[in-house]
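>> received
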Amino acid sequence: MGNRISLCMIVRNEEQNLRRCLASVSGAVDEIIVVDTGSTDGTCRVAEEWGALVYSFPWNGSFSDARNASLERATGDWILFLDADEELVRESQPVLRRLTAAGDVDGYFVKIINYLGNEGWVETCPDLVFRLFRHRPDYRFRGAIHEQIVDVILEKNSQARYRTAEDLVILHYGYLDRQIKEKDKKNRNLAILEREMARDPENRLLRYHYGVELYRAERYGEAAAELLRAARGIDPRTIYLPKLLRYIVLACQAAGNYDRALEVVQAGLNLFPDYADLYYYGGLIHMEQKNYGRAFEHFQQALAMPEQPVSYAPFAGTRGFRSLYQLGRLAELFLNLEEAMGYYVQSLRDNPRFTPALESITRLLQPREDPAYARQCLEQLCDFCTPGANLLMGRILFQQCAFGLALEYLERGTAGQETSPEVMLWKAICLIQQRRYLEALHIIDGFKPGHRLYPLARLNKILCFWFQGNRRRVRSLVDELFSLGLTTDTGAVLALLKDTPGRRRKPGLDLGEEGMSLLLDILMRALDLGEKERAVSLLSGLSRECLHRNARAIGQLFSRYGHPAEAAQYFQMHLAEKGECAATLYALGEIREGQGDFLEAAGLYRRALALEPAEPRHYARLAELYEKMRREILQEALDRYPDVPVLKRLRQETGVER
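>> returned
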């Protein structure tokens, strides 16, 4: 029996992908058949450059018809079929010849690794697909979309045998966000599936694929209903059942039907007790429901699972970095920051590209308050040997308002490199926050009228002079920026910058959400520079209603930058305006605790706890505070009665020094 291999493809407007695909099979197949369904770009030219035989096929809405047209023209003994957004892993080339030399096999399920997300953050999801089979004239695809041939081969040859070849690996890029958007895959697939389901409403596989497409289209309630219907009465041996169960859980969770999602998690684990994804998503749902003990158990179970079968199509990290990250979040909820840091570090070590873990580690290191210590820890933990790694760290630090340290990493990441306008503006802002105004202005003046970032650059130029107290330049620059056409809210904030103290308009301004967001950013920048009086001056221009409406956000800024008296004033204002608020009570309690007023702090924490009894940080903070109070009282007693036996025993138990 021969083992000539024909690669069969259908394509349309795949010029950007096709070259990568054909390069991956060069020398591994004996002929390439490309059926084009109406390309308007250079797809056909690229195919011919790689020696493909190119045929035209008018698109009729059926992927099977197009695939079968490619089979009609193939002359090989075996058919390998790929899509243009896929490629064969180079190490798999010799595997093809070994597999097709077998005389007792009619087809193979092979491993495919799907890349999901976007080019900035990509996840992987392995799966099994049927892509290699013997070429016979009666083996033809069936189904307008998600076309199948496995069942057809068995119908035509009841003795046909299949094997799994996980060492033959395909990479698939078609689920990347950019690819889906460019091709409008969601709407295209939904339309085809709806047409097919109208013809065959009892087709379980069609309904499964339809539910998945609804989920991808963010129609979660409909997706859950379709997927549950597809699962009703299904044979537990169905190869796609693990994936179906996971999609039901995801759809129910996204639709807010947590109870049903957890029912499916348990039912799925009864069938597949080693399925890490179900433990992981069950943990996420328990976290959303504030059932933290069960969440902890589920994430620990996910970590304990063995290597997952490819048939589960497991998402990367559910038995590693993802579950470790969620355990870190749980530890933070209970104010166990040391344990949280440990989990985040383990998560990052399991996947050094997992940005959420790095962001959490950086936040816990408090890089704004202690940049030297943060730098030391980060340099020990991460390898910043590439510009990209330095830029990533710079972006994280910039977002966490650690401007001085962010500037160091941004400069390392841009040295000798072509730099995006966004990064240049970040650098300018960092320079302003270091009072390096001339260097910042040099960058800012590089943004010309018409550039999309020009208004933001001009705003930062205004801030350069505002922080220096140059009112004349501020007024002229504000007038210039007004000429560009601004929203009412943005214009009102600029008017506040333009006005001098003591010349506030009456009544004060009542800013909307957009204006308040901008003002809070400017307040943060002023407080970061130690310019509290400038911040207070800006706030004096707001109406009483606006101040009361935004009191908690303003209080949080004053608290973060070490002004507890002003922070407490705004937190109390928020409570007077809005009534009891757990987050505000807790924040005010932290201020009172820091001021040594433990009794008032305890009362505030208890009020917060009464409002949010499921919030673990209230319990943790109260426990810590009561322990602190106990030690303080015991110390006072020991100072007064150093020889009383009961106090000596308590001292030994608590470790309190005389």
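>> The domain at 184-319 is CATH 1.25.40.10 (Serine Threonine Protein Phosphatase 5, Tetratricopeptide repeat).
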